Amino acid sequence: MDTEAQPTQRDRSCPPGTPGARGRSRFAFPARLAERVPGGRLTLALFACLAFLYLLSAFVVRPFEIPSGSMEPGLRVGDRVLVNKFAYRFGARPDRGDVVVFDGTGYFGHADYVKRVVGVAGDHVVCCDREGRIEVNGRPVDETAFLYPGDSASAAPFDVVVPDGRLFLLGDHRARSSDSRDHLGSPGGGMIPVGNVVGRADWIVWPYGHWTRIERPGAYAHVTAAEAAHG
């Protein structure tokens, strides 16, 4: 008699209390729930996907459609970008050159906008120097890599110091952009609170032919921090 085979056959039944029975019990509730929901497992899977997409949009990334030509040539009307909502969490802050999406309520208008960060807290931003360039903390910024061809740095001169916790923002298509320059006399002086920033625009994802990563330009890399410049 093969005495080794007998306990093996009994194990296949997985009586209550065995590890196999506990493994199956983990799936018992979803299975019972699927039986009660119209559409069964397909409906549950659909709800799970929707919940995942909601959480992704609320806390990680958010799609944003470019509404105007104010950021041409880099961002065109109708382009869809992915906004990284994690970029400025855990102590990180927007930096000069970043393209950000922000809530303009109370400052620009009741809508979300996309602009480029030109000045951060403490920065002295002036336009223009003798060569028609913006200066940040006394350093000229060569914007030719992203400025719309034929546009000047600004048709109207300005001389501002960015308050703590605020940002000075400009569009790349200066001739078609309503930005911090146009709101210097408005509440907040055209400077957007850092807390109003939704996130950093990191990728153009639609249309497919425009797919690319939005890089921070090197034009601001040589700008000295405000504290050092003032010191």
Short overview:
The protein is an alpha+beta fold and 231 residues long. It is built from five helices and twelve strands.
Helix content: 10-25%
CATH topology heading of the largest domain: Umud Fragment, subunit A
Structural class: alpha+beta
Count of discrete structural domains: 2
Categorize the overall geometry.
globular
What's the β-strand tally? 12
Notes on the protein architecture:
This protein has 231 residues and is α+β, with helices and mostly antiparallel strands. It folds into two domains: 5-58, no CATH class; 61-230, Umud Fragment, subunit A (Ribbon), CATH 2.10.109.10. Helix content is 20%, strand content 24%. The protein has helices spanning 5-11, 19-25, 28-36, 41-59, 226-230; strands at residues 61-65, 80-84, 99-103, 112-119, 124-127, 134-136, 139-141, 158-161, 166-170, 192-193, 197-206, 212-213. Strands 1, 2, 3, 4, 9, 10, 11 and 12 form an eight-stranded antiparallel sheet that branches. Strands 7-6-5-8 form a four-stranded antiparallel sheet, with no helix packed on it. Strand 3 (99-103) and strand 4 form a beta hairpin. The longest helix has 19 residues, at 41-59.
Salient structural properties:
5 helices; alpha+beta; Umud Fragment, subunit A
What topology does this entry show?
Layout: H1 5-11, H2 19-25, H3 28-36, H4 41-59, E1 61-65, E2 80-84, E3 99-103, E4 112-119, E5 124-127, E6 134-136, E7 139-141, E8 158-161, E9 166-170, E10 192-193, E11 197-206, E12 212-213, H5 226-230
Antiparallel strand pairs: 1-2, 2-11, 3-4, 3-11, 4-9, 5-6, 5-8, 6-7, 9-10, 11-12
